[in-house]
Amino acid sequence: MSDNKLANIKYSVLDLATVVQGTTAADSFKKSLDVAQLAEKVGYNRYWFAEHHNMAGVASSSPSILIGYIAGGTSKIRVGSGGIMLPNHAPLIVAEQFGTLASLYPGRIDLGLGRAPGTDQMTALAIRGENFNAAHNFPRDIIKLQTFFSDENAGSKVRAMPGEGLDIPIWVLGSSTDSAKVAAAMGLPYAFASHFAPTYFMEAIQIYRDNFKPSEHLKEPYVMACVNVVAADTDGEAEYLSTSLKQFFMGVVTGKRQLLPPPVKSMDNIWNVFEEEAVMQMLSYSFVGGPEKIKAQLTSFVEQTGVNEVMATTHIFDHQSRMYSNKVFADVIRTSAYAPLS
């Protein structure tokens, strides 16, 4: 694969509205707008928020509200959900919310859908109430959404107002092979959470491509992979900054979540060998380094996977370093077609 092919890859941002130690969710939202405005300036394709609940350090529990905030503070970058956890919501409510967003920001809103709760079982019970034990059918609920968005639903007794007749692209999100089959059967674009669930990534995208059925929405398979990115001027600086990411995932592994901590010189006194192995397995698809290393890693990744788009999520303690990481990642892709980075 040539550098030119790498330069044609679309690149996007996944934001969890991460709250760093010493700050609040309100601070995180303002920082997200900073990142989104920079992302728009340096050519990122879309900016998504992921629905999570009851997680210290993650403030993206209401993606639709954050999408409106970011879309209102930018002018052209696509903004959407990565994703809305569909079993937590009635399809009609999702259709109305995203119909409202698409009416306010036409041609810029994406609706990525996941089938997991985005939280622990106790919190899922609090979200769903009496519907907790109800049978959830992910493909059926996607079809309901498509119906609410269609012109043909105008004669129905239940309509999405606004939402009806609007072109709102629907994506299927996944972290295993199940959603790959759904995306393939429905002819929808597929986004994989390889930034924390790398185990089934290669198998899932192969299943998706092998079983893809063209639809009115999409003629050929389209794969987007979410990856962790920590970029800096040097490999050493990036490795140092990435210790915040590693500590963040330590919280996932141990169940002891915290606000995003500052970087440390060494992780040796923070994790044991088993925790290190678990964290590094989850972080298999992470690009950490200076421009040349990021370029080599990304080129190899695109060659191996053939993805159409990469979505970068960046957990960095210092806001300016996070902004700079996003710029470096964009520069690597933008400049790979016509000039060496050295």
3D structure, described in words:
The protein is an alpha/beta fold and 342 residues long. The chain has twelve helices and nine strands. α2 (25-41) runs parallel beside α12, α9 (235-254) crosses α10 and α11 (291-305) crosses α12. The radius of gyration is 20 Å and the shape is globular. Mean pLDDT is 91; it is low at 337-342.
Number of strands: 9
Fraction of residues in β-strands: 5-15%
Distance between the termini: 20 Å
Tally of helical runs: 12
Kindly provide the radius of gyration, computed on alpha-carbon positions and rounded to a whole number of angstroms.
Answer: 20 Å
What does the average pLDDT come to?
91
Structural class: alpha/beta
Pick out the low-confidence regions: 337-342
* Strand ordering within the main sheet: 1-2-3-4-5-6-7-9
Write down the overall geometry: globular
SSE series: HEHEHEHEHHEHEHEHHEHEH
Largest sheet: number of strands, sense, barrel closure:
8 strands, parallel, barrel
Helix content: 40-55%
Topology:
Elements: H1 3-7, E1 10-15, H2 25-41, E2 46-49, H3 63-72, E3 78-85, H4 91-104, E4 109-114, H5 121-128, H6 138-149, E5 170-174, H7 178-186, E6 190-192, H8 201-211, E7 223-231, H9 235-254, H10 273-282, E8 286-289, H11 291-305, E9 309-313, H12 319-335
Parallel strand pairs: 1-2, 1-9, 2-3, 3-4, 4-5, 5-6, 6-7, 7-8, 7-9
Task: Report a brief summary of the structure.
Helices cover 43% and strands 15% of the residues. It is α/β, with parallel strands linked by helices and 342 residues long.
